[in-house]
Write a structure and sequence with these properties.
By secondary structure, the chain is of the alpha/beta class. It contains 13 helices and 17 strands. The longest helix is centred in the middle third of the chain and has 15 residues. Pathway: Carbohydrate degradation; glycolysis; pyruvate from D-glyceraldehyde 3-phosphate: step 2/5.
Length: about 400
């Protein structure tokens, strides 16, 4: 898949460049929680590339779901502070998204300076993919760069409609993600291991169907695995899982059971609290009051052995209730197994809950691709339409 990109020798002095990034990160006590491999940190690389070539950079992003209203808790001012730290300059901030005050702020920019606009989702026209809103944004700039893979599955004004208003290009982060994921889809080196966890079966089942013909093994974990165990008629107690996915899981197992590595044992407790005693039990021994909260030791050792021999590994979603440190053993074991294949295989890791975990484990720089998109990565791999990417194709 070929995308329009700016050439390394591009002279952008005096050019106003409108850049869409994905700065949608947690904000705690007014500070953007974004590590060295986080979404903002990686977007800053592309912004700095533009700055070094003399561009006057206007950045836009969303944060949360304010539903077209100005919600102070979703202001992107903390994103401006984080970008300032990363770029080593003051990133200016506009309380407005479009309008006279923004135009004045853009006019005052000098070569190499950066301005961040307020949360684009404060304007209801953003999620309606409004051409009028896109036109107002386009009036601020000479060209547009999309470096936000994580929102490319959204037909929003700052992602799709804007590309019709200005000369438009893919940024380096977007280009890298599309390049690696395209190769995985078209010609994965084998053995190919697909590992999927998390909760939503509706997000993961389409990926399984799409990649199953090429995959040698599909390792299933997290609450997704619980749906598969329920599909097999095994007891799941009071576990949380996507009930709608059980029927699809049954069909997949009927068609290709030999490829699936389902848990043989699981970690259970009466609740996820620190007081509840956890136990590693066979999948047939889950009690009526038990909750499945992690994948068991024997299952993960078997999964790790398959990863050790793989030439391609794609992993999305935690394998347990990983936000609770008591139930993240399976996720960390899988992360280390995939990281150990760094030199011998193509390794792709994604998912909003997965990336922070591998970063805290010190493994974030040991994968071919650490995707910034959770839902976007899944939709791309499932072969679904990606409006933001289609708008940039040559």
């Amino acid at each position: 898949m070929a995308l329009r990109t700016l050439k390394n020798g591009a002279d952008l002095h005096g050019k106003r460049v409108l850049v869409r990034i994905d700065g949608n990160v947690p904000v705690v006590k007014g500070k953007a929680v974004d590590g060295a491999h986080g979404r903002i940190a990686r977007a800053a690389v592309g912004i700095d590339w533009l700055r070094q070539r003399g561009a006057r950079v206007i950045v836009m992003t969303h944060l949360g779901r304010p539903k077209g209203k100005r919600v102070p808790a979703y202001s992107v001012r903390p994103v401006a502070k984080r970008l300032s730290e990363l770029l080593g300059i003051e990133v200016r901030f506009s309380r407005d998204i479009v309008g006279p005050s923004v135009s004045r702020a853009v006019d005052n920019l000098k070569d190499g300076e950066v301005l961040l606009l307020e949360n684009v989702r404060f304007d209801a026209r953003e999620e309606r993919n409004s051409p009028a809103f896109a036109q107002s944004l386009a009036s601020l700039a000479d060209l547009y760069v999309n470096d936000a893979f994580g929102v490319c599955h959204r037909a929003h004004a700052s992602v799709e409609a804007i590309a019709e208003q200005l000369p438009s290009y893919a940024g380096p982060l977007l280009q890298q993600e599309v390049s690696v994921l395209s190769k995985v889809m078209k010609s994965p080196k084998r053995p190919f291991v697909l590992a999927l966890g998390g909760l939503k079966a509706s997000d993961k089942i389409p990926v399984m169907r799409k990649l199953l013909p090429d995959a040698d093994y599909v390792i299933v974990g997290g609450a997704l695995a619980t749906a598969f165990l329920a599909a097999d008629g095994l007891p799941v107690g009071r576990s949380v899982y996507d009930g709608d996915g059980v029927r699809s899981a049954k069909r997949l197992l009927k068609d290709a059971r030999v490829k699936f590595l389902l848990p043989l044992d699981v970690v259970v407790a009466s609740s996820p609290t620190s007081r509840a005693k956890k136990r590693n039990v066979s999948v047939s021994q889950v009690g009526p009051k038990d909750m499945i909260l992690d994948i068991g030791h024997a299952s993960m050792k078997k999964a790790a052995r398959e990863v050790e021999g793989a030439k391609t590994v794609v992993w999305n979603g935690p394998f347990g209730l990983a936000e609770n440190e008591r139930f993240r053993d399976a996720t960390l074991l899988l992360a280390r197994a995939v990281a150990d294949r760094a030199e011998a295989a193509v390794t792709v890791v994604g998912g909003g809950d997965t990336v922070p975990l591998v970063e805290r484990a010190g493994l974030a720089d040991r994968f071919t691709l650490l995707s910034t998109g959770g839902g976007a990565m899944l939709e791309f791999l499932a072969g679904k339409k990606m409006p933001g990417i289609e708008a940039l194709q040559t």
